């Protein structure tokens, strides 16, 4: 299931369906950089693994419309007994794909930031912090940040209720412990 998400085109398709709602393979192909037929293949693979399904037809019903089954997703380690090398590798592949995709969007923003209004440039921010926390504190920090972000998440917020001028905005948060000194990761 995780390996199905680790493909960059599938992640783009799933993100499109989660953020903008139901779409055809042709519409998804635009964001995935694929042909509609290749996109149809990836949609079927996502459906096979329970990420998407057929949506109600629109218009004359000749086009196949797809929708995401989940409005978002989060990766967390399962109970220790279920953590296998294959699962860790699959999680790592998904995370790497997500981070690569996010890096591309960040580079795209930085390349055109000068064309943004001063209002948007001053609202954007980039923070790097190193914390001193134990596992419980780190979990609490993540929960508190999620609580702040939840009302604004595109999957929960009705666009009709958002203020005029609202745009899709990304937040990339990475909470992870550094390996102890003297021990290399991996």
Automatic annotation (TrEMBL):
TM ranges: none
Domain HTH arsR-type stretches: 1-89
Domain of life assignment: Bacteria
Keyword line: DNA-binding, Transcription, Transcription regulation
InterPro entries linked to this entry: ArsR-like_HTH, HTH_ArsR_DNA-bd_dom, HTH_MetalResp_TranReg, WH-like_DNA-bd_sf, WH_DNA-bd_sf
Molecular function terms from GO: DNA binding; DNA-binding transcription factor activity
SUPFAM superfamilies, per database record: Winged helix' DNA-binding domain
Keyword ATP-binding: no
CDD domains: HTH_ARSR
SMART domains the UniProt entry points to: HTH_ARSR
Protein name (record): Transcriptional regulator
